Amino acid sequence: MHELSLCRSIDSIVRRAADGRKVAVIELDVGELRQVVPATLEHCWALLTPGTLLEGSTLSIRRIPAVIVCAGCGAETTLTDLPIMECGVCHGSDVKLVSGDEFIVTSLQLEV
Question: What is the 8-class DSSP label of residue 96?
């Protein structure tokens, strides 16, 4: 369950950015290739935050699709049959990942 270690990293990032202010929502971009289970991430967050300044805060997770671009024909393909990384047009395998491996804290919503 790597989600717990991810939550510890989120905690560290958010504490520095919040600078002692109470946080309501942490917004995250999580790529499909990260193999993160959102419900497990949220569960781990709920286990980690009681008794801290982040208690009661929630994670808002935006899933980012895995998208590749083909070196052969230039087509962009959103992957649906992971982990197959093949152009959806010419079926070439010389592709470059455009999105889908993100794990980013994008913003914080602070309590007033």
Answer: E
- What are the start-end ranges of the H helices in 19-110? 38-48
Per-residue confidence of the chain (112 residues) as pLDDT tens digits? Answer: 589 999 999 999 999 999 999 999 999 999 999 989 999 999 999 999 999 989 999 999 999 999 999 999 999 999 988 778 999 999 999 999 999 999 999 999 998 8
**CA 108 – CA 38 distance, rounded (Å):** 18
Give the separation between CA 105 and CA 29, rounded to whole angstroms. Answer: 7
In angstroms, the CA 32 to CA 3 distance is 14
| Polymer length in residues for the chain | 112
Domains with residue ranges and CATH for the chain: 3-110 (3.30.2320.80)
> How far, in Å, CA of 16 to CA of 6, rounded?
16
- One-letter amino acid for residue 65 of the chain: P
Amino acid at 85: M
